[in-house]
Each structure stands twice: as structure tokens, then as C-alpha cells.
Amino acid sequence: SAVISQKPSRDICQRGTSLTIQCQVDSQVTMMFWYRQQPGQSLTLIATANQGSEATYESGFVIDKFPISRPNLTFSTLTVSNMSPEDSSIYLCSVEGDRNTDTQYFGPGTRLTVL
Amino acid sequence: SQKIEQNSEALNIQEGKTATLTCNYTNYSPAYLQWYRQDPGRGPVFLLLIRENEKEKRKERLKVTFDTTLKQSLFHITASQPADSATYLCALDNFNKFYFGSGTKLNVKP
After folding, report:
1. B28 touches A at CB < 8 Å
2. Strand B32-38 relative to strand B56-59: parallel, antiparallel, unpaired?
3. Interchain CB distance below 8 Å, B100 and A43
């Protein structure tokens, strides 16, 4: 299994500012995923981040709003830019597990509140 | 459009009974389907995976079925315990990406 940590665990931000969320994994992984979970809702995939290439964004999410970095095989960042109250959500990173098991491991999430 | 449906209403059952949760999907042909447990304030935790060529999978008190004709998976917890109270999510694989249902909250009462 993989152990994933995220920073910060929570933050309260002002409208119009940006926040960068960090995701650290205790082992090298090829694919990392960023999700958003709005209150009372399920997880929505924002983008897939592979090391050494640009992130692939899902429909409805754009790089200007959610720039992602993936500098190595154990780390990634997601920035929520020019925030509005609609961006208030939990942001989770995940990694693929053992290919033989086709599982995913999730970080604890970052709870973001935008005022 | 792609759609994954789980019962949005909470499921309330008595300790010791079997809980059955449903996941229906449309416009997918997933190679496999997963079930996760999520507790408040935490990320989802993987429970079980079932592949398209498997009808049923078991793990301790958990059982998952997968009917690709009905496009439905059922998730069973037998001899349920209050500690099983959580939100349960199904997720479908679509070309190495995972798409989640909205989850069903299970409350097991002592």
C-alpha cells in the first residue's frame, strides 16, 4: 500500500487569492490523480498527473484555474487559482496501487473554504 | 453522458442484519468496479474490486456482485456492526481513470 500525505489539511482563503496543495507519497508512482469532493457529493476527477508530462484535465477543468505540477515520482501540487466561494471543497490526491490489484490509495484531503 | 447512481438516501439497519447497497451505471463498459469506504473528514479507503468476468467476490463479511447486463453492482455487508457506519462509494474504471458514484451513507444501529 501507499501512504499519502497532503498539506495543508485545511485552509480558509479570501476570494481572488490562490492556494497550492501539496501531495507527497511514500513510494514512487507513475500516475497521480487530483479529485474534488464538494459538500455532500462524490469525488470528481480534476486531472491526471504523470511525471514528465503535462497533466490531463477532465471536462470542465482547465489548466489556468487548476495548474498542476509533477516534478518527480513522489510529489505533486495542485493550485486553485483566483478562488471564489464555489471552489470551497475537499481536494484529494490519489495514486494508483499495485497494477495487479487495480486499486487506488487516497490522501486525507485538503478542506478549502473560500470566503 | 456517463452516469453512476447510488441511493442518495441513507440506509438505516439494525446491528446483525445484512446491509445491501446498490450501484447502477449507464454508458460505461468498465473492465472492473470498485467499492470504497469513506469516513467523515477522511479520504476513501479501498475495500473490494470485481472484474467484468466475475459474478461475485467475497472478503470476510463483504460480498460484491457485478451484473454487466443489468449494469449493476450490489455490495453486501453481513452481520453488520455499528463500526460499519460510513459512506460507501462505488467507482468504475474507464481507461485507467476512476469515476465515482455519489455514495450511500450506512447507519448501523446497536
Report:
1. no
2. unpaired
3. yes
